[in-house]
Design brief:
Elements (H helix, E strand, L loop, with lengths): L14 H6 L3 H20 L14 H12 L4 H13 L5 H24 L9 H29 L8 H27 L8 H23 L15 H33 L10 H76 L18 H6 L2 H19 L4 H10 L1 H6 L3 H21 L1
Helix pairs in contact: 2-3, 2-4, 3-5, 3-7, 4-5, 5-6, 6-7, 6-10, 7-9, 7-10, 8-9, 9-10, 10-15, 12-15, 13-15
Length: 444
């Protein structure tokens, strides 16, 4: 039994398509192990309580796993959360409660995003807005509420600390949804980029610059951060440049890079957020990273949406140009066919118009365009001419108009035929004269 692809249309040729072809007995344990490893990393910075940390990357892994591989990954998330919390000093019942809250949080975010029709690549503004509101703001309240309640009910933490623990828990989960989940979605949901050499050099140069600037600002070998200057805003131009040039992949990668260096430097007492206790510093740096992540994600989505609309307009213009070219070819073919028809029929009418009209029998062959030779020519005008003459003969037969009367009418119209500038006009004048005489006879 294999995992069902959820984004098969957009994941062709991507790493995700390979993961989706793996069997469940291999995919689910891998997700659980990855969750436990990320949880151990987050719990190593749990300075408020042993089970509560403001840095919680597993929430982003869980959300990305559900969006990319489907809701069947929920058991793997529950097992990973249970193992990660059981490795702490919390009782098993408390660990089960926390794992339940983490799983329900991921499922709630998955349901909201799927109901909203979110594209896994986060290529539209509405996708990013739903990620921010539905996942980072709304679903994280479920895990924070259930988790802190389990700690207080189990006697691990006092009820007086409920508000403070809930705030730290919620903030850590929210930032995890904004920093980790977009990185996995952007890099796994779409085919790998095929950059030219210049593009790869630009990406490497931008990454080097963002690392150098972040280390300078947050670690501060020059000690500028000790003077109280707000140098952490220096990273914004580089994050914006990554979003403009490389979309969600560049935005999410630079955001994670800045976040990792900022958290490491803050925990070790460096950077502009080094004042206060470690827990207070981490709260401040996580709020800063939330602003950076939201800015980068929204800007990258706006650029991607604009590029998609531009490509759509270019495709529409190309289709319009193709249609116009085909129409021109059709008109040229019609003109050529009409010219060939006139060249085929005109000589026959020219010879007919100079012949005595009274000697012509009142049959279909008396009209040059309906002669056997013209019918063999295959001209489209032949059919119209034949239908017109047949209609006139039927009307005259119904009104008692004889062939002799028709001959007399044609004789009276000989002047109109011979005075017409072209045989085609003479033919039209003859039809009109015959039809007028027939109508006059019918009224009588």
């Amino acid at each position: 039994m294999r995992t069902a692809p959820t984004e098969s249309a957009s994941a062709q040729g991507s790493l995700l398509s390979r993961v989706q072809r793996l069997p469940l007995w291999l995919t689910m344990p891998a997700i659980a192990v990855l969750y436990v490893a990320a949880a151990k990393l987050g719990l190593s910075m749990a300075f408020v309580a042993e089970q509560v940390t403001v840095v919680w990357p597993p929430v982003g892994i869980a959300l990305a796993a559900l969006l990319l591989l489907g809701a069947r990954m929920a058991p793997a998330i529950f097992v990973g959360a249970l193992v990660a919390n059981a490795l702490t000093s919390a009782p098993l019942a408390v660990a089960v409660g926390i794992a339940t809250g983490n799983t329900l949080e991921a499922l709630g975010a998955f349901w909201i995003l799927r109901r909203g029709g979110v594209d896994s690549g986060l290529t539209r503004l509405r996708d990013v807005l739903l990620l921010i509101t539905g996942a980072a703001l709304a679903s994280t309240t479920v895990s924070a509420t259930i988790g802190v309640t389990s700690l207080c009910l189990g006697g691990v933490q006092p009820w007086t600390a409920f508000g403070r623990l809930w705030w730290v828990w919620w903030l850590g989960d929210s930032v995890g949804d904004l920093v980790v989940a977009p990185l996995l979605l952007a890099w796994l949901a779409a085919p790998p980029p095929r950059w030219q050499r210049e593009r790869a050099i630009e990406a490497a140069g931008l990454l080097t610059a963002i690392v150098a600037v972040t280390i300078t600002v947050f670690v501060g070998p020059l000690g500028f951060w000790r003077e109280g200057y707000p140098l952490h805003y220096v990273t914004f131009p580089f994050v914006i440049a990554a979003a403009l040039r490389f979309g969600q992949r560049g935005a999410s990668a630079t955001t994670l890079t800045v976040s990792s260096l900022a958290i490491w430097s803050t925990v070790n007492g460096f950077g502009p957020f080094a004042a206060g206790s470690v827990a207070e510093r981490l709260v401040m740096v996580q709020l800063y990273m939330a602003v950076v992540a939201v800015t980068a994600l929204l800007l990258a989505a706006a650029i991607s949406e604009r590029n998609t609309e531009a490509r759509g307009r270019a495709a529409d213009y190309a289709r319009l140009a193709t249609s116009e070219h085909r129409l021109r070819l059709a008109l040229e073919a019609a003109r050529h066919s009409r010219r060939s028809c006139i060249q085929t029929i005109a000589p026959r009418f020219s010879s007919r118009s100079h012949a005595p009209s009274s000697s012509a029998p009142a049959t279909t062959s008396s009209f040059g365009c309906c002669s056997p030779a013209a019918r063999r020519a295959g001209c489209r005008a032949r059919g119209r001419c034949l239908r017109m003459h047949a209609g006139v003969r039927s009307a005259c037969s119904a009104s008692g108009w004889t062939s002799a009367s028709a001959s007399a009418s044609r004789t009276s119209c000989a002047g109109a035929r011979t005075s017409s500038p072209t045989p085609i006009v003479a033919r039209t004048s003859s039809w009109r004269c015959w039809r007028t005489s027939c109508a006059t006879r019918s009224r009588r």
